[in-house]
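seq as requested:
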Amino acid sequence: MTGTFRANNPFNTFMLLVYGLLLKLQWFISPQIPVVQKSDAFLYNKILLTIKPVFDSFPEVYSIITYLLLYTQAISFNRLLNNRRLMQKPNYLPGMSYLLITSFFAEWNVLSAPLVINTLLIWVWAKMSSLYNNPHAKSTLYNIGIVIGITTFFYFPSLAFSLMIIFALLITRPPKIAEWIIAILGIATPWYLLFAWLFLTNKLYSFQVSGFHIDYPLFAKNNAQYIGIVLILITAVVGGLFVQLNARKQIVQVRKSWGLIVLYLIVALFVPFINSSHHFQYWILATVPLSAFIACFFYYPTKRWIPLSIHWVMVAFVIYMAIIKK
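struct tokens:
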């Protein structure tokens, strides 16, 4: 499969759809009903509580929604990496890697607030990677701020991704206080509008924000999950080494884009530490940037049998976790 997705063939868009469906078939056979978590913000809670009376009787709908989110995220992130030329040639390995690693654990195949905001965070990364030499940086930063503000309506700890704006500006542009202020105003805008509406409707004092809670997160429930985590980390680290080895061949903007992916990963790994509830599903935030490095692991080795073998080992792990370890 790695050979198939190495090619920049438009038919691979459909192949990814089939590939993902096969990997996640178990979650269609045994659909999971999402549960409201303590860290979930008011908008996600409102949406979920609205649809649950209808969809709980047809849990397959949740599986369809979840897969559509995962598939569209894989395709959009794959397209963005190709457009930014983060690898030597366009391919479909990032999308394949994302669908593959998100199939490792059941918690990553259930509808959740972190899964929903992954779509928004992919857009945020895309806009941040366009800041270099952007003549309309202020409007872009304001829009980025608004989207990050909206993510907190689904999952409040995602406010930590506002750190990406600060460091993205340090990486991509000369420091300008005005641009930082504009980004902060963007983050505050959705909350300003929300509080204005709550005030006008006399609901301000009854509104509650989920907030932060610094604690040690849940890394894994059993040894099998630790094996999966190790597989992901090893392939991502080796992929990162390939990125570093090829950095000199890349233009400045591409290197900065890779720096933003590293920043994205660091913040995503930090977020589970500020949750008010312990759940493995929050680590799905890190799967987007990890899939970029894992794609490089599958792309760069000259001995093709190595990434091919590891790919099938990872597929075997997916089958084991979905069927045997269920």
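The longest helix spans residues 60-83.
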